Records
---
Amino acid sequence: MPRESIRSDPNTPIEVRNLGVVDYRDAYEAQHALAAERADGTLDHDLLLLLEHPSTYTAGKRTEQSDLPTNGATVVDVDRGGRITWHGPGQLVGYPIVALAQPLDVVDYVRRIESALITVCARFSVTAGRVEGRSGVWVCDDAGERKLGQIGIRVARGVTLHGFALNVHPDMSAFDAIVPCGIADAGVTSLALEAGREITVDDVLVDVVDAVRSAFDHRDVDGVVTGITDSQTSPEPGVASVR
């Protein structure tokens, strides 16, 4: 049976910080500092950082040369799992800083994030799900597979970093310059495109917070979960990453 909560201390609240638009490198440094404080016990509760980034391409550990932008844009190398992706305005990014329950179950943690994002999509009348062998949140129909939510994480000293990105209403042309997540045979989409109406990041904030909190502290009850791949354990003790 799955554990009730993925968190080491589910009796403490998850503090939510809505940060607005934050430069990627600033957010990268901030989340690493907060994760270190959480691991040390200086920070005595879990956090969920919600924000948007200016247009930024980031490359995870498995990024290949062929994935890189064709438009000459700068790429930021990061310590999460996975390959290349894009962040920018209109995309809600979430960085949970969470001390995980022992023994660590990184796959369960990723699946709970997927469940949360699938729930949010349903609240906006968009049917999303998982694709076997591929992480993240997908829309699948006669038009093919389209990725709506990306997940890339790192766990160090039992605390999570990085997290998820939900395409709400970004400029989708930013993805044209890369092979998103290294997946060449599928597309990308947004919540607004799939719903066929205007949806803003502000519109989804409350739903995302509610869904993430519920997914972290309750059992995943939406059935069989597939699609978590590319688990890698770093040579650094106590560190793992998944995309």
---
Amino acid sequence: MASDDFSAELGGTGFNATDEWGNLENGVSTTAVASPAFRALDPALDSVGLGTVYVSFDFSTSQTVNWGGLAFFEGVDGGDETLFVGMPNGQQSYGIDLKGGQGVLLSGVPIDTQVHRIIAQIEFGSSDDTYRLWVDNLNESMPNGEITLDGFVVDDAWQSVRVASDVGAGTIVTVDNLVIADSAADVGMTPSVDATLTIDRGTGEISLSSGSNLPNVVGYTLRSNAGSFDQATWNTIDGRDATDATPPGDGSVDDNDWEVLTGADSTTDLSEFTFDVSPGDGLALGTTPLSLGTPWMRSPIEDISAVVTIDDNGTEVPLAIEVVYTGDAVVSGDLNGDGDIDLDDWVDFKAGQGVVNGGMTAVEAYRMGDLDGNFVHDLEDFDLFAEAYDLANGAGAFAAAITSVPEPSTIAMLAGVGILACTVRRRTGLFVHLVAAVFLVASLGSTAKAVVYASDDFSADGSGVGWAGGDIWETRDDGGFLSTYPNGSPDNTFSSRNFAAPIDPQNNLTYIRFDYRQGEASGQDWGGFAFFEGLDAGNDESFFAGANPGGTENYAFDTKGGGNLDSMVPFNAQYRTIIGAIDQTGANTIYSIWIDNFDVQNPNNTLTIDGQGAINAPWQSLRFNGSGTHEFADNLLITDGSEQSMIFEPPALETLNLLVDKSTGEVMIENSTGADVDISGYSITSGSGMLDAGGTPGDFNIDGAVDIADYTVWRNHLGGDAAALGGNGSGGATVTAADYELWKANFGNMATPGDGWESFAERDTPVAGFPQGSDNGLGWEAGGNPSTFEVAEYYLLGESAVGSTSLSLGPAYRGGPDGTQDLSFSYRSNGELVFGSVYYVAAGSLATSAVPEPSSLLIVCVGAAMALISRRCR
């Protein structure tokens, strides 16, 4: 239908004979000359009428960021863009931007600066379209990616094609050898090949075979984006056959010289090729497996893809082949891959604290304890490991779950709400119980007429009320909350749901309440709920509630068309209760916002805009979205203003608190719940490095002395992750000259016992009820890398009770009176994760018991008012 090798501006076929690209250079279409570059198709391509369209081209980019590629438009030199192929914006692998809000179809082949052959196909159906994608792979039966979309994005003829990239960001792309056709053969596809890559889960062995003879194999590429390969146990063909080796190979696999193409440190790629062949030459794969050794590092992550290259009379043809795993799958929690979950894995888990980061591969992070795959080692991972350990080693391996017998005074209440309790998971926030209680009271004759438009505790796919039948959240987590990372994948970062009946805030007072937590906290992150006047969260968004809309770096509302209502409360990684009111009962619209504030008369901020602003029609759908840093939401309620206690009555205080004396640096765990709280682990984090882990500033190798060896550590990690400095750096996220100045200022100093954080695990005098373990799980053990960013410790095989006496953790805060107040406190209790409150107090006011002194009564009152909803899940 159209093709161009870009050898001349008016060359090719299927294009307007007088229309130039305007960006040709050295036989390619490149954005180094001009971007974008359009060319009109002649005739226009009625792709829908043809049934199937293939688009094939060679592609390369100067950078692995931003975007660039080939796009198709329903207008000449613009109009509706309905297909984009190449490097979609913000993605890490080659793909297709499906347009129409349908997301991205990714290949899994990482973007680099090499030339790649990309083939896209759209198969137009009677009621839906199927998209397929091949990258460096001509096996028609095995596309790298495939998806079927309901309805149609491409619904008119294509009139023009464009080559473009994000030139403003310095990205240059090139396109060559473009073919647009209606058959697989026209773009060089090859019918199915009967070859297989087999991976033995028990041994890690990888082998190649073919059910029928596959001759002329001249290369292969195995890829694992998760980093599953260990080259030390890779048995290469080159190592067995190379004639230039010492000793020389024996030719037992092939009589040609093979060459390893994989970089020396790569864990993501195993590639070999032979350039020493004549046309039609190469090795033959058959039913006898060709072993490549045992380079697969055993883990639950199974993402390996395989391509073999055959020689077709001098033409190299890459063909994707099937990958088959045999044997029992590796159980999550078996960090070292030896087939069990034991204390060796426990040691590995602790060593990962403070080390896991986004620069690791997924397998590296997993093997150091990142069980949920978000490249962060935190208390959520400890929760998963403890559960896995218990499951693998028999019931009770993790000191059996502690159950409490209700007091007689509560039995009557429990009987009244028993049916409701059966429908609410233990991991659900207390607020949902509060709402349930309100409904129970109402059913017994209350005169309250509160209208609940919609509510959800996210405990099940069909949970909640007020939602359209059969409609579920796409990213609900099994833990009982809403997340922007479904199943640990950052590729789908939003979830939407339609209301059963439209919610009309016009001429009404409408309240919205939900719990929200940002997985990370920086000016680049945002997230929250967006309200839409159309179904399925289309383009008619009229209100947004959450964190950092428009770069505020605070919890705020985007009123759409009326600016932002900023709460002036900086967002961080703690759960916060967000309450919003939209009052359109008058001529204008009044927005109000409350953050962990339950005083209806005193919102954190208000904003009045003329008229109805952007809200001029009922809401029909809701979307939870974020920037991809892992956002969480729980306990959503949308109601009218007729019963404000449903919105503004705080729950009873049921969490432990962390009290911080900014003058002395002392940090204490306080229990004001009125009952013992059993804990099996806790974590205190600070995004700005306000923690004192007990080390000596400048002692980067943690040997107790600041000496020349620490300078070597600084030099070797300059520009890298600050975790390499053992928590004794200047507090930045990366190693900088400020760390050198800190080392120089403290040169010659020795560690002073008792300085900084005092863990339960390593005190000279153990805390009563907090036994100390030693890599055996039978007591408290600290994470392997305490730092200015996190301190954590765990009790794998038991729990300790925090009673009414507050527990000091020593001078663990190093910010001083003017330091940043960004500490986050979480703990594990009875198999649940809880986010506790953090309070900063005046010098010397930390009490030694949970009973407040008069001078600290205000703190407790504020704590009761601002307490986060307890039992919040991961």
---
Amino acid sequence: MPKTLLQYGVSFALIYLSLTLGNWIQSLLAIAIPGSIFGMLILFALLVSGITPVNWVKPGCHFFIRYMMLLFVPISVGLMDHFDLMINNAWAILASAIGGSLIVLVILSLVLNKFMNRIEPQASHKEHH
């Protein structure tokens, strides 16, 4: 039991430290990217580099994922409070969601097509030799 509590404590501390550093970087740079995004990138870099072992963060992550629905309750209540605002702007919301998705889809397909065309000639060139 004490080992489990220590694992959760270390895990939550690492996640919270990453979030705090991310918020600090966001306030230092004064840009519109949320600090939580910087925090996730910091945590990702720590995990990928091996500085922080995955099993140090795993208990807290499993806890957050298990109870993630509870974290969306405040957002849902906020949406219900401003439902009339959402209905009044429904076309703009839909247009931006669909338009943004289409832009990402087109750019991704162009980049992937260019990447695949670059790989194909090299592969066929190696087959002939």
---
Amino acid sequence: MIRWLKKFRVTLVVVVALVCFFIWWNNSRGYDDSAMASIAVDESMDESSILEGKDAGGKLEPSFNKYADSWNEQGAVDAADFKLSIDSADYTAVSESGTRIESGLGDRAGDAVALIDEDSWVEYSFEVPQDGYYQMGMSYYALEGKRSAVVRSVQIDGAYPFYQAKKLEFQRMWKEDGEPWFDNQNNEFNPRRIEVAGWQYRDFVDSEGKVYEPFRFYLTKGKHTMRIQAVREPGAIGTIDIFSPVHVPTYEEVLAVYKQQGYKKVDGQLIKSQAELSTLKSDPTLKRIEDREPATEPFKKDSIVLNSFGGASWRTGGQWAEWEIEVPESGLYELGARYGQWFLNGMPVQRSIKIDGKLPFKEMDAMSFPYKAEWQVKKFGAKDGDPYLFYLEKGKHTIRMEVQVGALGRMLETVTDTTRKMSLLGREVIQVTGTNPDPNGDWRLEQNITNLVPRLQLMAKRLDDTIKSLYELGVNEGSSEVSTLYEARDVLLSMASDTKSIPGRMLQFNDLQAALGTWVNGLSKQSLLLDYLIIKSADQAWPKADAGALARTGTMLYDFTSSFTKNYGGIGNVYEDEKVLEVWVARGRDWVDIIKQMIDEDFTTETGIKVNVNTIPAQQMQVLLLASTSGLAPDVALGVEGEIPIDYAVRNGLVNLEEFSDYKEVASRFRPGALIPYKYNGGSYALPENQNFNMLFYRKDILEQLGIKEADIPDTWQEVMDLIPLLQQNGMDFFYPHAPNNPALAINEFAPFLFQQNSEFYREDGMYSNLDSPEAMEAFKLWTGLFTNFKISKQADFYNRFRSGEMPIGVADYSTYVLLSTAAPELTGWWGMKPMPGIEQADGQINRSTGGLAQTGMIFKDTEMKDESWEFLKWWTSADTQERFGSELESLLGVEARWNTANVEALQRMPWQSSDIDAILEQWEWFKEREVVIGGYYTTRHIANIWNQIVLNGKIPREAVEEGVKEIDKELRKKREEFGLNTEDSAKEKAAEGGVSP
């Protein structure tokens, strides 16, 4: 037996080794064309006609690349020798409201048209002398707004030529307000960023940086109109320029000019411009960050020093930063940078580099920064060639680096188009097989779906071509960023070779679409970290990229040994005084840095109350419980999950906020329904900081094609149920969120149906579950009926399926709004958001009640600074503080981190578009949270079980609900007895003592 076990162990080791070798080999391989070798794709076939099908997204404008390709095929060429400047005051038409005339803005004399309100517009007429391509741009002045970039759309002759013209971004200018500040631990913190007012000029370019050059607009000879419309933020227009496309010379052409002018190389010069000292930037999210590599300048081993620039926040097309340099003599210099690019595994990123506002030559529009998991020195030059030479006059110059995604632009567009075609094909399969097909049935898909096999093969070919292009671009062999494309390509080929397997693989097919959508979004982010720029003469050696193994090892050892004594929880100034307010925050470090800076600058300055702030891990509330039971609880905790305060209140661990005389005034900052979860036994024990909320999202273009006007978008669940069959007949679906891997979310998914039936989760002060009431039964039937009777998807990536058109309408939270606003430019103007559906009441009103339990702030009972804690909580939840925190957070992390504050007034001040904030506020009129009771975790658990029993196991709703309620009531009773709360038996005893019937 022992000998057999030894042999088995050896065999197992060999098998594991072989598997590991195969995985390594598969991941480290370069391009593999064997999968495509056996596929005979007819190159003479018209790919676009084969792949087009019955595309439900046909109303969308083409991309710029498709627009240009179409005109190129018709022989379009650049216009020559033309330039026209139109003063903004020389308009031919203007909207009746939302515009005004500004005089004397900045250093510009005269009048300028300012578009103030969203959807305000101004129109100009102009004439061009010949057919051809023209480029355009305008000077602009960003007026005071909500700190976001100014966004405008441009129509030519009453139409958008391509979808990117619907969202042209004109960035503001930002600079640091003073020097960095240091806490009393000598750690460095970023200074505040303030906006710099002034006129700027920008060509009409792709706001995502996915097109190298400014847009070309094809115009026919004669008169045309241009309408500029406000999409976001107020701004004034100076002049509009229309001109022949600009020819940027190549390096070879510039080098010939150098020789002709007799320019000479300088000697003995090595200048480093520290990247963290940028003079201007396009975005307040661009800031100084810390790097612990010893060669990064400057370096301190004992404290935080912000010694580099950019990183993960410097990643979005169009973001730029500018540095001022000074050279001691005129001549030819070499340029470069010390940089870190370890963000996209194996993928190079690009930057457009301008000197004194202009591209020195064409190659600088796409300077590549290869991937490496450590610091590198980049010589600005051709790949594997000598550094370029740059002529600089003696004196000051500016160097601007802008995020450029142009090299990937067409590839990302190809993958996005392929994903959309996959979605279209999936809808056609569903039209044949239904939503729950027999995977073993013979559906004869090839006979029922036109060009099924060629379409699958051509989609695989497009992905294969993209893989080749990525390797040609310089992607490292074995890059994990290519694996998604390999997988999708191989699945498409496999389906093409065995079409009978397609119905049984639709889940895999849909998952691949989501993976490709995520892949496109990921590669659109081109992060780069800079230490310093290098300006040097050719006779000087390039600086070393790193400090060497010995120095790095020493730093690592020092950091390791000091980690045993360093306080990682404390943020900013740490006070040792006896009377200091201790605040714990369950959020990320970047978030807490902002909170602490605001406390030191505003709260402590105004009140004199000193505050220590510590971070605790989010989602680990047991840390607070352990601290509380051991007598080490803080005075105030922020970022506490909404269900937690009652757990402490029932244990007499929190201060009843209603003890304070101005509680009602403070509570009026929030929707009344937002305070429900924090009430217990006649008291209130927390204030909401933020709150989630669901909305109804819809695709205008697709619903219009189905005959549904925007005014007819569903307002009630009955209207939703009337719509679903129409969607499914066209291979589409409605989305309602369900998270099967997170049962805790089921209660929030069910809550709207319950509240809209005018029911509650509990009765008799939380003594019993109310889920067996007639109203709750109706809510369960309506909720689960969407999945059983109407067969909507039980799980889906709504963002990607909404984008592809497969799910043109559905309910989702505010994070979907952020995604659609920032990462779906092709849908600009083609999607909308309104309050979620509800149930019509007897008085004709539609009850849209829903909640969105989020984070709270609370005061611990053991505090010796009760009044100071209340002052802090009042300050933190005030409109001014919440607005500033939201602005600072968005400035630091981008619009993806938009703060969904619970303060109604602060929410209105955030940079939402007016139509969107109106819809949100309408939904908030019905904002209602569920009651949180002791033992309520059983309600959460069994609501998920009830859904599973009804939807997955086919159980009758009443049976499933009654079984669940039985278990919930048992746990509620048990917990109430444990904490000495009123139960049925105790109620009977009290009633008997009083001589009355309970």
